[in-house]
């Protein structure tokens, strides 16, 4: 998987977070973007995490993805 793909997913996820009206649905959609990236996996208890924790983790992924050179 190329760095450009990861950057693109990070950019789309970041933009989606700004446009989403619902934090629950928005963070789940952002997670779906990252699930398309080979090598990124989510913990088995992802669905049991609070929305705030999910957002914190996806925001961290966005930051890392956008810093890839």
Characterization of the model:
By secondary structure, the protein is mainly alpha-helical. It has one domain. It is built from three helices and no strands. α1 packs antiparallel against α2 and α2 crosses α3. The mean pLDDT is 90.
Helix content range of the residues, please? 55-70%
What does the radius of gyration come to?
A: 11 Å
**What is the count of distinct domains?**
1
| Amount of beta strand | under 5%
Helix run count: 3
Count of DSSP E strands?
0
**Main pleated-sheet profile:** none
For the termini, the CA-CA separation is 13 Å
Mean pLDDT score: 90
**Helix-strand string:** HHH
Specify the structural class.
mainly alpha
Shape, per Cα inertia axes: globular
Unreliable parts: none
Entry keywords:
69 residues, mainly alpha
Can you lay out the helices and strands and say which pair or pack?
Layout: H1 3-19, H2 23-35, H3 51-67
